[in-house]
Automatic annotation (TrEMBL):
Domain Phosphotyrosine protein phosphatase I: 26-180
Family matches, as Gene3D superfamilies: 3.40.50.2300
Organism: Kitasatospora putterlickiae
Entry keyword set: Hydrolase, Protein phosphatase
Family: Belongs to the low molecular weight phosphotyrosine protein phosphatase family.
Xref: InterPro entries: LMW_PTPase (IPR050438), Ptyr_pPase (IPR023485), Ptyr_pPase_sf (IPR036196), Tyr_phospatase_low_mol_wt (IPR017867)
Keyword Transmembrane: no
Protein name per Swiss-Prot or TrEMBL: Protein-tyrosine-phosphatase
Length: 224
């Protein structure tokens, strides 16, 4: 499947229209280009942070996946990316690259992309994705401004998925009002082919973006 077929013509499957997504789970989809560097790092760091803050039953209701607009289908994670995850204590094993498909966008409650171009590609696929698709750093910037007290609180009986959906709605409402001072601030650059130091820099950027997102999603601070 070519990248073009994902975004136009027969690649858009009319029977994949967005319907009600299961309310008992919340699905996060990370998107980059090859799905072997940035989005796997973000996926596995997010999974680690969820699993360290929530009990297993609750953590398992937030699903985290990734794909690439030019995904290296079946490829392992880039070696330096795996090294960075290992250094953060996150699981790098058992990963295989995927190409971004319509069904992944349909099923996602929140799509977080590496760049503005990736965001535009996801939105161009349709499926009413515009209000639930952000770059990772854009979403982080927006959720930092949201008063946690306005969100459903799991400590007071609210469901964690209810809180997560409310957070996405609040971020979408703020997007037109809170613009980045510089569009580059919402971008996460590709370290593919770079030395390990660049991957560590990328991993640090991703970690510092993921941490407040998971805090906002769960209402729980990291135990760093």
């Amino acid at each position: 499947m070519t990248a073009a077929s994902l975004h136009a013509g027969p690649g858009i499957s009319p029977y994949l229209a967005v319907g009600p997504r299961p309310l008992d789970h919340f699905r996060i989809l990370y998107v980059c280009t090859g799905n072997i560097c940035r989005s796997p790092i973000a996926e596995r760091l997010t999974r680690r942070e969820l699993d360290t803050r929530l009990n297993p039953r609750v953590a398992g209701r937030i699903l985290v996946e990734s794909a690439g607009t030019w995904g290296h289908v079946g490829a392992p994670m880039e070696e330096h990316a795996a090294t960075v995850l290992d250094e953060y204590g996150a699981d790098s094993g058992g990963f295989t690259g995927r190409e971004l498909l319509d069904e992944y966008v349909v099923e996602a409650d929140l799509v977080l992309t590496a760049t503005l171009d990736h965001r535009a590609q996801v939105i161009s696929m349709g499926h009413e994705a515009g209000l639930r698709t952000f770059t990772l750093k854009e979403f982080t910037r927006l959720v930092r401004t949201i008063d946690p007290g306005t969100l459903p609180d799991p400590r007071r009986g609210a469901d964690v998925t209810e809180r997560a959906r409310a957070l996405v709605r609040a971020a979408a409402a703020l997007r037109g009002w809170l613009l980045a001072a510089d569009p580059e601030a919402d971008e996460l650059h590709d370290p593919y082919g770079a030395p390990i130091g660049m991957f560590r820099n990328c991993g640090e950027e991703i970690f510092h973006a993921v941490d407040p997102v998971v805090t906002a999603l769960t209402g729980l601070q990291a135990l760093h």
